[in-house]
From TrEMBL:
Protein's recorded name: DUF2798 domain-containing protein
Signal peptide (residue range): none
Sequence intervals crossing the membrane: 9-30, 42-60, 80-107, 119-148
InterPro entries, sorted: DUF2798 (IPR021529)
Keywords: Membrane, Transmembrane, Transmembrane helix
Top-rank taxon, per record: Bacteria
Length: 160
């Protein structure tokens, strides 16, 4: 896990890129508009989504998730439980905010089809959570922690 601001930035960068890439493709597939599933549209959505996600991760959701995790009544020395609590807090926060991004992108692309704003947001939130939770806990989280531990922190140890 990151031990300083530089490591937090690198960790967040890798995590956000992976999550945004998968979630953007997922959301484009969900709206069923395959003609918009072009390289340019995917790159645009991933680029904008990545910038927003990274800013949220570093300045809003990340710090809030850390505060929440540290205030929860459990043994913080249990690394697995700590990572699960931190990841769950991050997932809930990021899905909350990135679903707003998805709502805006959906509205700009297709409109709301006469449905209420809160209903559409709720549907987007649930669909995003259904993929984001297992994706982060079972796929991206372990992959990013592996990359971080074996390539980023290892380089730091070798240069010291």
């Amino acid at each position: 896990m990151p031990t300083n601001q530089k490591e937090s930035l690198i960790f967040g960068f890798i995590m956000c890129f992976g999550m945004v890439a998968v979630m953007s493709a997922y959301n484009l597939l969900l709206i069923g508009d395959l003609k918009h599933l072009t390289l340019q549209n995917v790159l645009t959505e991933v680029g904008i989504g990545f910038i927003i996600a990274l800013l949220l991760d570093l300045h809003v959701v990340g710090p809030l998730a850390k505060k929440i995790t540290h205030r929860l009544p459990f043994d913080k020395s249990n690394k697995l439980l700590f990572v699960l609590c931190m990841s769950t807090s991050m997932i809930l926060g990021m899905v909350f905010f990135m679903s707003i991004f998805g709502l805006v992108m959906s509205y700009l692309g297709n409109g709301l089809d006469g449905q209420g704003l809160l209903i559409v947001y709720g549907v987007i939130f649930v669909k995003n959570f259904i993929l984001a939770f297992p994706l982060q806990l079972l796929v991206m989280g372990p992959i990013v922690r592996f990359i971080f531990k074996h390539f980023i922190q290892r380089k730091k140890c070798e240069t010291v």
